[in-house]
Each structure stands twice: as C-alpha cells, then as structure tokens.
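Customer escalation, tier 2.

The customer says the design service returned an amino acid string that "doesn't look like it belongs to this structure." They asked us to rerun it and document both sides in this ticket. The original structure tokens are below, unchanged.
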C-alpha cells in the first residue's frame, strides 16, 4: 500500500482461516493508509475436489463473499482440466468476476509440467467459450510462450457477464447451504441458545465449552441444517464466551 499498489491478490488459498487473517490485515492497512484498493481472492482445489482444509468451491466462495472481492477464482494446483467443474460452479453462484490461472498441468516427480502453450490455451478457451471467466492467466510451470498463446487464442472473446443475484440466501462452514424452496422445511437447531436452554446456559456460565459444543453436534446429528448460537447473557462474558465456544464448536 505504501508503494502505491493498485490491487491486492490473496492467492493459492488452502484454508479459510488464512484468508480471514489476510483480510483482517488488509482492512487494517486500508485504515492505516486511508486508501482502499480492489482485492482478488484465489483459492486452490486439490484433486480430491476440495481445498486442503476441506471446503468445496461453493463453501469457499460463500465464506469470502462478504469481503466484496473484485474477483474470486482458482489458481495453481491441478491444471485446467481438473478446474472445469469448480470454475463452472463458481460462475453460477458468484456476484464477483471470476479469475482462473492454473498450473501448466500437474507436475511429474521431476517437477516438469506437461501442458504445452497450445494445449493449455485450448483448454482455457473452453472456459471463455462458455462464459465462465473474466480474468485468465497462468501459474506454476507456465512461461511467456504460454501467456502469448493464451492471449492469441482469447483475443476478441467476451468476458463473463457479472450478475448481482447469482444465488439466494446462503451460509457456509466446511459445507455450503444455499437455501431454496425445495429444501422446505429448513431445520434450525436452537438449543445452543442461553435464552432458550437452561442446560446450555449453565454450561456456558461454567466455561464448560466442550460439552456445550456437544449440544450443537447432537442437533446436527438429528437433522439440523443450521445451528443458532446465542450467548447474549448480560451477567456473563459474552465476547469471551463467544470466542471460546465458536472455536470449540467448529471442530465438531
């Protein structure tokens, strides 16, 4: 920021906690400098279909949406072929632009990448043909020749149209929950509420966070889609309890 940067890129993200930590730092930098710049957030999906921390691309996107990134996308990792489903999904739900800059394929044991400039560009062209992407480039293993071929193949192609209503109400943790009418009824677990549950209130007041978190887990086992957490106790340490309890409950 002090050097006059035009944009900040949080990339190759494998764990949402890292992204949130980075975003906290970015907000602090904005406040300190008195200047905001656009932010791009780019995750990386492993061959098993999630980030290393276990999030699907839907959950990853929903977790960063409130940061208002100018673009969200994928980079590095598996190369373009394994990104197809994830980029398509991202294009369907994202209110932001979509970026995609993969490796030149998966590296072999010698560290060599086997996507040629031509093969990489042809695979990436499919993303543009289908209207899924706004920003395209290359990550590990790509060379000036790869970028030159990408530029040549994509010349004149239109970027994805950005919509502001790509999805309905949604929340996420490791898994996404995108609500639509077909899900009725939507079950909300309300026992982790100090106002509604005497047992839960006593556990929180006693700082017994692990057994309190079991109450949340049991609600999920019985079919709750969403857990309502309320620690609004004027006689307790609301902020301290929330920090301790949430850290415990997300593990379950």
């Amino acid at each position: 920021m002090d050097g006059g940067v035009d944009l900040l890129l949080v990339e190759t993200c494998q764990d949402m906690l890292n992204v949130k930590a980075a975003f906290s730092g970015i907000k602090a930098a904005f406040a300190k400098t008195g200047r905001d710049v656009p932010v791009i957030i780019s995750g990386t999906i492993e061959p098993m279909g999630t980030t290393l921390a276990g999030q699907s691309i839907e959950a990853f996107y929903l977790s960063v949406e409130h940061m208002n990134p100018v673009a969200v996308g994928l980079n590095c990792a598996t190369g373009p072929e394994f990104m197809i489903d994830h980029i398509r999904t991202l294009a369907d739900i994202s209110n932001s632009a979509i970026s995609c800059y993969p490796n030149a394929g998966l590296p072999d044991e010698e560290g060599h990448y086997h996507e040629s400039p031509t093969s990489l560009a042809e695979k990436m062209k499919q993303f543009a043909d289908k209207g899924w992407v706004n920003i395209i480039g290359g990550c590990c293993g790509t060379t000036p020749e790869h970028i030159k071929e990408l530029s040549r193949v994509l010349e004149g192609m239109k970027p994805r149209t950005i919509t502001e209503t790509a999805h309905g109400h949604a929340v996420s943790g490791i898994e996404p929950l995108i609500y639509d009418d077909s899900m009725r009824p939507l079950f909300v677990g309300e026992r982790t509420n100090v106002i509604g549950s005497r047992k839960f209130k006593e556990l929180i007041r006693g700082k017994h966070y692990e057994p309190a978190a079991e109450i949340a887990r049991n609600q999920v086992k019985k079919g709750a889609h969403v857990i309502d957490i309320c620690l609004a106790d004027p006689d307790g340490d609301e902020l301290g309890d929330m920090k301790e309890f949430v850290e415990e409950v997300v593990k379950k």
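Tier 2 assessment: The sequence is consistent with the input. DSSP finds eight helices and nine strands in the chain. The first strand starts at residue 8 and ends at 13. Sent an explanation to the customer and offered a walkthrough call.
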